[in-house]
Design brief:
The structure holds 2 protein chains of 2 kinds.
Chain A: E1 4-7, E2 10-13, E3 19-25, E4 31-37, E5 43-51, E6 54-57, E7 64-66, E8 76-78, E9 87-94, E10 102-103, E11 107-111
Parallel strand pairs in A: 2-11
Antiparallel strand pairs in A: 1-3, 3-8, 4-5, 4-9, 5-6, 7-8, 9-10, 9-11
Chain B: E1 3-5, E2 10-14, E3 19-21, E4 24-26, E5 33-38, E6 44-50, E7 56-58, E8 64-68, E9 73-78, E10 87-93, E11 96-97, E12 100-101, E13 104-105, E14 109-114
Parallel strand pairs in B: 2-14
Antiparallel strand pairs in B: 1-4, 3-9, 5-6, 5-10, 7-8, 8-9, 10-13, 10-14, 11-12
Classes of the chains: A mainly beta, B mainly beta.
């Protein structure tokens, strides 16, 4: 059972570079989420999606973009990396709005 | 504003002793409440949830949580702590906002169980 798969696990970016964090789930969940985790700050919602073709902003969307062309995939795009985007990024999915979420193992991103 | 508070950054407890990790919330309407655990270099894992019904909810690994509506709390408990319970614990609330559900997470409490 793969669950939620995130790639890459680690990445170092230079300021101004761009990259895409990949997220795929094989549970046919409608809801998908991107969070960032900063020390002592808990998890902050970046973007979420309630189904293919539908995305919306969370608490901290600036500097990021997402798309949801299929139920399975929910990539997160960083266009111009900044040091403030150094964080651990988690993708999650859930079958509906009132159920628990399943998390990937995270991507540790450092922007230098 | 909708929010979740975990007032303790760290909780230390001796192995075999009962443990409590505190969580209070502020949401409008009926809250959906969750506890997650995070082990080092891993994603969050679901422990238990309260949607409706009995105020005492039982979950994975012997954990339970008590929903207290009057105190707006959802404290996580375990009768006898294990060293392997040492991890980062997150409380989350899931209000219905702007036509959809969104998690709001607390800042986390690090549990350290001492042998």
């Amino acid at each position: 059972n793969a669950g939620v798969t995130q790639t890459p696990k680690f990445r170092i970016l230079k300021i101004g570079q761009s990259m895409t964090l990949q997220c795929a789930q094989d549970m046919n969940h409608n809801y998908m989420y991107w969070y960032r985790q900063d020390p002592g700050m808990g998890l902050k919602l970046i973007y979420y999606s309630v189904g293919a073709g539908i995305t919306d902003k969370g608490e901290v969307p600036n500097g990021y973009n997402v798309s949801r062309s299929t139920t399975e995939d929910f990539p997160l795009r960083l266009e111009l990396a900044a040091p403030s985007q150094t964080s651990v990024y988690f993708c999650a999915s859930s079958p509906s709005g009132d159920t628990e979420a399943f998390f990937g193992q995270g991507t540790r991103l450092t922007v230098v | 504003a909708q929010s979740v508070a975990q007032p303790e950054d760290q909780v230390n407890v001796a192995e075999g002793n009962p443990l409590t990790v505190k969580c209070t919330y502020s949401v409008s309407g009926n809250p959906y409440l969750f506890w997650y655990v995070q082990y080092p270099n891993r994603g969050l894992q679901f422990l238990l949830k309260y949607i409706t019904g009995d105020n005492l909810v039982k979950g994975s690994y012997g954990f339970e949580a008590e929903f207290n509506k009057s105190q707006t709390s959802f404290h996580l408990k375990k009768p006898s702590a294990l060293v392997s319970d040492s991890a980062l614990y997150f409380c989350a609330v899931r209000p219905y906002l702007s036509g959809t559900y969104k998690y709001i997470f607390g800042t986390g409490t690090r549990l350290k169980v001492l042998a």
